[in-house]
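We store chain and fold; example below:
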Amino acid sequence: MLCWKYVASVSIMLYAFSSLVLIPSLKADGKKIRHYFIGMGLATAIIILLLVWLFRYVFQTPHYIQFIIPINAVIQLGLVAPAAWYIYENRQKSTAELTGLKTALGQSSANLDFLRSQINPHFLFNALNTLYGTALQENAGRTGEGIQKLGDMMRFMLQENQRDKISLTREVEYLKNYIDLQQLRVQTSPDILIETIIAEQLNYLQIAPMLLIPFVENAFKHGISLQEPSHIKISLHTDETQLFFDVHNSKHQKKNNDPERDNNGIGLENVAQRLELVYPGNHDLVIHESAREFFIHLVINLTA
C-alpha cells in the first residue's frame, strides 16, 4: 500500500508541474517535445529523490522503498508524461476550436448586420441625389455642393471603411470633403480662419481608413466659436515612406450645460489606442494643450 501511495504522490506532483508550469513555458518558447521529456526526466529524478529521503529519514519507512525507484521512473516517464502532454494538447485544441467558432459566429453576425445596413444607405443616396438636383434647379450652389460632398463621405464610409488599408489619396479626399463641409458652415463668419496645407500624396502609400479624421473633428468641435475669434490650421505632407500630419486650433471653454463638455479627448484617446494597434512602434503622436490652444503632431511610417 505504501508503495502505491508513493507512486501516486509522485504522479500527482509531476502531472501538476507539467500541466501548469513545464508545458506552457516550453510552448511559449517554441520548444519541441524532446525538451519536454528532458524536463520531465529531471523533475522525476528530483521528486523521487526528495520522496525517498523523506520516507527513509523522516518517516522512517522500510528500506525496500528504494527498489520502487526504477518502477516509479518508468511509470512517470512512460505514462504520466505522455498523458499530461496529450491532455494539454487536446485542451488547447478544444479551446482553439471554440475560439474559432466564436470568431466565425461573430463574423457571420457582422456580415448579416452589414447586409442589413445596405438597405437604408441606398435610400439615403437616392434622397441625396434628389436634393442635389433640386438645389441645382433652385440655383442653391452652396447647398448642392454640400450635399454632393456629404454623399461622397457616406459612400467612403460604407465602401472603404470596412478595409484594413486604403490608399492615402482616398483618405485625404475624405478629409478634404469634411473640411469643405465645415467651411460651408462657417465661411460667413469673418473671425473664423481655417487654413489647410495638404500636399499631393504618393499613389502607392496606404493607410488605415478613418485614422486622421478624429483629429480634424476634434479641431472643429473644440476650436470653433461663433462668438469669439477662432482658427484652425491643418497641414499634411509625405515623403517616400512617412506621413506628417499637424493640426493646430484655438480652444474655447464649453458651457456647463453643453453635452460635449465631458467628452473632450475621448475620440483622441481612441485614435491613440488604434495607432498603437495598427502601427506599433511605427508612429509618433505628440499632443500639446493649453488653456487657449491645442496642437497635435503625428508621424506614421506607412510602409511598416
